[in-house]
Amino acid sequence: MRVPLSWLAEYVDLKPGTTPEEVHAALVSVGLEEETIHRFGVTGPVVVGEVLDFAEEPQKNGKVIRWCRVRVAPEGQKAADGGADVRGIVCGAHNFVAGDRVVVTLPGAILPGPFPISARTTYGHLSDGMMASARELGLGSDHSGIIRLGQLGVDEPVGADVIGPLGLDDCAVEINVTPDRGYAFSVRGVAREYSHATGATFRDPALLYPAPPPATGRRVSLADETPLRGRPGARVFTTRVVRGVDPERPTPAWMTARLVLAGIRPRSILVDITNYVMLETGQPLHAYDLDRLVGDITVRRAAAGEHLTTLDGAERSLDPEDLVIADDAGAVGLAGVMGGARTEIGPASRNVLVEAANFDPVSIARSARRHKLPSEASKRFERGVDPKVADTAGYRAVCLITRLAGGSEDGTGSFFDDTRPAEAIRLPDGYVSGLIGLDYTDDEIRGALTAIGCRVEGAPNGLAVTAPTWRPDLGAPCDLAEEVARIVGYDRIPSLLPVAPPGHGLTRTQRLYRAASDALAAAGLTEVLSYPFVTGRENALYGSPDDEAPRAVELANPIDSKAPLLRTSLLPGLIGIARRNLSRGFVDLALYESGLVFRPDGDMALGSRTLPPGGALPGAAVLERLNAGIPAQPRHLAALFLGDIVPAGPHQPYVPAGLADALDAARLIGRVIGARLEVVEGRHHALHPGRTAALLVVRGHTKTPVGYAGELLPSLAREADLPRVVAVLEIDLGLVARAAADHVVAGQVSGYPAATQDLSLQVDRRIPAGRVRASVVEGSGTLLEEAALVADYRGPAVPDDMKSLTFALRFRAPDRTLTAAEATKAKEAGAAVAARRDGASVRD
C-alpha cells in the first residue's frame, strides 16, 4: 500500500516537517513493514505559462510542429530561471489555443527519468524550455497533448510555480500489508495505525463524511442458493444513482497526483473517483452505466455455461461457484473482482449507478484465482472489508461525482444490510501477560484494545472484548494479546532466549540422518537441494532398478507441465544440478542430497476424492481418509561423482572419480550411522553392467536391500551432457537408520604389535571378491584384525577364466605378541575356508 503524505495528513495530524522516513519508522513500530518511498522526481523551475501565439510549420518528415511564443513571467519581470518573460518554444502537440495557460518547464528543471531541461535548437528554432504533458511530469500515461491548467482547476497566475498546485511536491510511503491486516489497504487504516504509533489525533473518514438515510427505489435481490461454507456471498449491497454527469471532464490535478503516487493509473473522472474512494476508505466501488442496465439487479451464483466479457475485453467462462452481479439480461460483473464490458462507463454515459457492497472473502479469493484476475478490489475483499463503511463510501463517491463531474443525485438506489454483530471474545485474566512474557497492567490492556476500536467490558475472571467491524482478523484471545503487545510497544518485550525444556531436541533417527549428512560434507562432498518434480521417463529410469517403472504421484497443477510427477529417486535432480554446474565450468564435482522421495502405495485416491469444506474442522473419519491418501515419503540420500576426485599437481597424478568413490561414500554412511553395510554385485537398468553394486544392510541373519551404487550408462551420461564416467549412489536412509545398532561398543585396543601377511588366491572370475574375502575372514578366526583387497589381477599368469585376488591381512592378539607361525596358521585357515566354499587355490 502506497500512501501520499498529503492524503495521510487529512486524517491524522502530521507535525510540520515530518519526513517520509519518520512516517515509515512510526508505522514499523506498530508492526507494518516498510518498503520504499515514492517521489515524482520533478524539480523546478516549472511554472505557469500563457500561450501568446504560435505558427504551424510542416516538416519534411510529415510532422507539423508549432513555433510558439509563451509568456512565463509577468510582463517586464524576469522568469524563474532569470531569463526573459517571453520565450520561444517548439511544441509538437496541437491541443491548445492562444490564451491557454500551460505548464512550462524552464531550462534547469529536471523531469522524471531523470530528464534535464535545457535550451536547445530543434526544427530550426532555439526552444527555450518545454511545454509539458502529463506523462512527462509523471502524472499519468497521457502523451497525446500538453496539460491545459484551466481544465484541471489550477488558477495560478502566469509565472507562478506550479509544482505545488499540481501535487508534484508530494511523496508517498509504501508499506507491505500482511494478509491478516487488510484494513491497512486504505489511507483510513494507515492513518489509524500512525495514530497508534505517535498518539496523533485521528479523524475517521467514515465519520467525516456521514451518509444520509439509505437510498431506496431500486430493487436488488440476493439469490445465493449455493453459498460457500454456508456463508452468503454478500451481506451488504448498496447503490446510489447520479444523473446528468459529464464523464469527459478531466480529473483534477490534486486527485491525479495522489492516485499516481498511490500506484493507480488515472483513466477517467468517474473511474478515478471510485478508485480514490477505495484507497481512502478501503471499500471497493463500481460504477455502472445506468442506461445499459436491463431491469433489476440480482446478486447470484453463475449459471452453468454462463459467460461474461469483463472490462479487460476477455470473455470468461463462469464457474457455478462464481458470485456475479446480474440484471435481467445476464451477468454484468464478476462480484468483487471486475465489472462487465456491457455496462461500462463510456464517453456517452450520462446516468451512473454507484455500487458499494461487502462480499464473502473466500468466494472472491477463489474467483480471482480461478480466472487469474487479481484486482485492487479482490485484493481487499479477500482480506476482509469493513461492512459498515460501504454506504458511507458510496455516498462519498456520489458527492465527488456531483462536485467534479457534474450531475446530481436523484435519491434513488438500494440498501441491503444483513451483517450480524460480532461475538465477544473471552480474554481471561493473566492471559496476555502469560502469552507475551511481560506483565501488563489492566489499564494497559484495556487502553490498547480500546485504541484499536474494540469494545471492552468486564466479565467474570477476565474481559469480554468485541472486535471492531474493520478487524475481521481478531477472532481469538491470542489475536488480542498480539494487539496489546503491538500497541503498548514491541520494545517493551525483553530479548531473552528461552530455555529449552529437558528431554527435547532431535530424535535418534534425526541425529542419525544429520550424522550421515555431516560425514559426507566433512569428506569433501557439497550438499545441494533440487526440486522434487520429474518427468515420467526420469521416474522410469531411476525410480526402480528393473525395467518396470514405479508408481508415482501426479500433480494436478504442476509448475512445469513436462515434469508433472513427484520424484521416486533423488538422482534426476542431482544429474540436472551436475549438468548445470558442468556447463558453468565446474568440471570436478562431488555432490550429495538428502531428501524425501514419494512412494504411493495402495489407493491414494481414497484421500482426495472428496475434499472436506474449509469452514469446519474435519472429523476423525475424514482425517483418517485424508491421511490414507498421503504417499509414503522415505528419506533417501544420493551422491554423484564426476571429473577428478584428486586433481593433478606437482608430483601428484590426477585420480579420476568412479565407482570406488560411491562405494566409499556408502560405507561411510553405514559407519557413522552404526549399521553393517554389505556390498554385493548388483544390477540397475540405468547403470553400467559389471560396474553396479547392490547395497545391503545386515542385522542379525537378515540382509535388506537399501540402495545401489554404480556408474551411469555412457549413453545416459552423454544424453545429459556429462562425461563418460559418472558414479552415483542412492540409499534409503530410513532403512539404514532402523538397522543401526542401539549401542556401539568400542573394541579393546591392544598394545601388542601386529603381524601382517599377504594372501593371494586364484579363483573363478565369476565369483565376487567380497564373497572370497568373507570366507577368508571367517576362516582366519578372532586373531584377524583387518582384511583388505589390494590387487585383482587378470592376465597371462593366470588362466583366462580365472583371476588372482591378493588380500593384505593384519593379525593381532589382545594379550601377547603373535609369532609368525601363529599368523601363518590363521592365514592358512582362512585360505582353507575359501578353497572349500569358493574353489580358491593359493598362488605362490
Strand content: 25-35%
Q: What average pLDDT do the residues reach?
A: 91
Radius of gyration over all CA atoms, rounded: 40 Å
- Share of helix, binned: 25-40%
For the report, how would you describe the main beta sheet?
Answer: 7 strands, mixed
Reading side by side through the largest sheet, how are the strands ordered?
28-31-32-38-37-36-35
Count the DSSP helices: 22
Stretches where pLDDT is under 50 for at least 5 consecutive residues are none
Shape: elongated
Structural class: alpha+beta
The strand count comes to 42
Structure notes:
The strands form 12 sheets. A 7-stranded mixed sheet has the order 28-31-32-38-37-36-35, sandwiched between helices. The chain has a 5-stranded antiparallel sheet with strand order 5-4-3-6-11, with no helix packed on it. Strands 13-24-15-23-16 form a 5-stranded mixed sheet. It starts with a strand and ends with a strand. The protein is built from 22 helices and 42 strands. 26% of the residues lie in helices and 28% in strands. The protein is α+β, with helices and mostly antiparallel strands. A hairpin with a 2-residue loop joins strand 9 and strand 10 (125-127). Helix 7 runs antiparallel to helix 10, helix 14 (508-522) runs antiparallel to helix 18 and helix 21 (769-780) packs across helix 22 (820-838).
